[in-house]
Task: inverse folding
């Protein structure tokens, strides 16, 4: 269900803190549209640290793989990236649907078939990564699987617990969310020829 306990603005602030602490840069220099690589100088290993900090901040598990890797795993090698390392039309169609399903991150991605897949990480912004966090937070179940109560709450603004038994919110992990979304999208749009 779409949770309303942690607003997107709070997620952005926590994202800025995670990036600032990882890259040891002034938090005030980080804007929602900043590219983590081009504007802030993040390297690939920095993403692991940022993800870890976000997991600690929200009690979630971030995706370990990008959507491209999940497309290849689910629909076969060459489905998302051709032999030259370029995005296929299928990958672009799926990614555009994924990015337009929300609102805030889709606009910063200009995807075209044939573009180099190595260009994708540079497109990640503070806002688009925050949206990935929000997607996980929105997997909050209607009721607590431990006691059945349906009154979730947060006392610190980032960790959601059950209002009945104080159990931590059981979110789906980021990789499972992407896989489930790909299955639903394929069923609804039949984009991948199988």
Result:
């Amino acid at each position: 269900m779409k949770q309303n306990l942690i607003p997107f603005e709070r997620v952005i602030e926590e994202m800025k803190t995670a990036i600032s602490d990882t890259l040891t840069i002034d938090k005030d220099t980080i804007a929602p549209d900043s590219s983590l690589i081009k504007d802030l100088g993040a390297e690939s290993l920095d993403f692991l640290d940022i993800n870890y900090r976000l997991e600690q901040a929200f009690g979630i598990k971030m995706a370990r793989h990008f959507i491209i890797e999940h497309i290849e795993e689910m629909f076969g090698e060459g489905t998302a990236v051709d032999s030259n390392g370029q995005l296929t039309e299928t990958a672009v169609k799926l990614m555009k649907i994924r990015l337009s399903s929300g609102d805030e991150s889709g606009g910063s991605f200009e995807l075209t078939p044939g573009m180099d897949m190595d260009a994708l990480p540079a497109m990640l912004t503070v806002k688009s990564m925050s949206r990935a966090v929000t997607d996980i937070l929105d997997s909050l179940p209607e009721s607590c699987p431990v006691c059945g109560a349906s009154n979730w709450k947060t006392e610190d603004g980032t960790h959601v617990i059950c209002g009945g038994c104080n159990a931590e919110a059981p979110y789906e992990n980021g990789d499972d969310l992407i896989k489930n979304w790909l299955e639903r999208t394929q069923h609804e749009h039949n984009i991948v020829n199988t």
Q: What stands out?
A: Confidence is low (pLDDT under 50) at residues 102-106. DSSP finds six helices and two strands in the chain. Strands lie at 152-154, 160-162. The first helix runs from residue 8 to 23.
